[in-house]
């Protein structure tokens, strides 16, 4: 999940510093959220999706489910 966020952010030309400024966070706090070291809230996800112009689903949810995840 977090790797996909980083890829989308970089592809759209945003730095961690840009994201932090627009979210009202420090660069360190944003970076930790993006790496999964601090909990990402739904509010954070919504702000990020608005900044990047992508849906929450596109950024935070996988397009595919592994066979292991569907095995009963």
What layout of secondary structure does this protein have?
Blueprint (H helix, E strand, L loop, with lengths): L1 H10 L4 H8 L3 H8 L7 H11 L3 H5 L6 H4 L2
**Major sheet characteristics:** none
Q: How much helix, percentage-wise, in residues?
A: 55-70%
Strands, total number: 0
Specify the structural class.
Answer: mainly alpha
Can you tell me about this structure?
The structure is a single chain. By secondary structure, the protein is an all-alpha fold. It contains 6 helices and no strands. Helix 2 packs across helix 3 (about 25-35). It starts with a helix and ends with a helix. About 10% of the residues are buried.
What features would you highlight for this structure?
72 residues; 64% helix; globular
Question: How is this structure best summarized?
Answer:
Helices cover 64% and strands 0% of the residues. The chain is mostly helical.
